[in-house]
Design a protein that fits this description.
Blueprint: H1 12-21, E1 42-43, E2 52-58, H2 67-76, E3 82-86, E4 89-94, H3 99-109, E5 113-118, E6 123-126, E7 138-148, H4 152-163, H5 165-168, H6 170-178, E8 183-189, E9 192-200, H7 205-208, H8 218-226, E10 230-231, E11 243-244, E12 246-247
Antiparallel strand pairs: 1-7, 2-4, 2-5, 3-4, 3-12, 6-8, 7-9, 7-10, 7-11, 8-9
Organism: Pinibacter aurantiacus
EC number: 5.1.3.32
Protein name: L-rhamnose mutarotase
Length: about 250
């Protein structure tokens, strides 16, 4: 397996980041990751609890209009939420006090779509795992999604690996610390995974990411073990596993 992906597939730095953390064999056909606008940045000081994810999926495979979800986010989340899109998927990422109410509002706004909620991440890396626990005041967030394979035994193995990663595989989180990553959250709803990567506002993954693997060869072993656990969600192409959701710009 090649350690660095070609840009003809997509940004090799973005892919290598996810490849380091989540799995060995990750590829995609196209990704354009826009810079987050200031209105979509979550301030660490204003998050009272772990943010949640609300996903809207058009079961007919059509693109969904994001205006209603943006309005729901503005009404129910402070600061302004992040809204992301990939094909027939819309995602709201925000600190939400009344998640059940937001879920009901989303069902009402998109009555013919499937609505999924991701509330409690099963993996949570943050700066508390670093020697330098200082956090940036504001973060940019990147969201990706994939499926776990259907084999339930393999799913349990995957979750067990992540439950013990900090103790048995400390090199992985050490790489995140070295790269100044602020937070990595992984959520699960049924087989679907949501990965949220947070970096300091205005920082570049192209610059930060190489630090995750500097003098860190055991990460390659982690990748080899993880690669068998994931596959692409419905709508991905052959050989495509993780997909990046495009962040939409939200006006104040």
């Amino acid at each position: 397996m090649k350690k660095i992906f070609q840009r003809s597939c997509c940004s090799n730095i973005y892919l290598k980041l996810v490849w380091v953390f989540m799995a060995g064999l990750i590829s995609c056909q196209e990704h354009n990751a826009p810079a987050a606008s200031s209105s979509n940045v979550i301030s660490v000081k204003t998050i009272a609890s772990t943010p949640a994810i609300v996903e809207v999926i058009d079961t007919a495979g059509k693109m969904l209009q994001p205006d209603s979800l943006i309005a729901i986010g503005k009404k129910n989340a402070l600061p302004l939420p992040g809204v992301y899109q990939w094909k027939n998927h819309l995602v709201l990422y925000a600190a939400i006090d009344d998640l059940e109410n937001v879920q009901k509002q989303t069902h009402a706004a998109y009555p013919n779509a499937e609505v999924k909620v991701y509330q409690h991440p099963f993996y949570n890396f943050n700066r508390k795992h670093c020697g330098d626990t200082t956090s940036a005041k504001e973060w940019d967030n990147i969201i990706l999604t994939a499926n776990l394979v259907r084999d339930t035994a393999l799913q349990r193995e995957y979750l067990d690996y992540h439950a013990t990663q900090f103790e048995k595989w400390p090199e992985v989180s050490k790489g995140f610390c070295n790269a100044s990553f602020q937070q990595l959250l992984v959520y699960k709803n049924d087989r679907q995974l949501m990965l949220v990567i947070s970096i300091p506002k205005g920082a570049s993954l192209d610059e930060l990411n190489p630090k995750t693997t500097e003098n860190n060869p055991r990460v390659d072993e982690w990748n080899q073990r993880m690669k068998k656990y994931q596959e692409g969600i419905t709508g991905t192409g052959p050989g495509e596993t993780w997909v990046f959701l495009k962040q939409l710009r939200i006006k104040n």
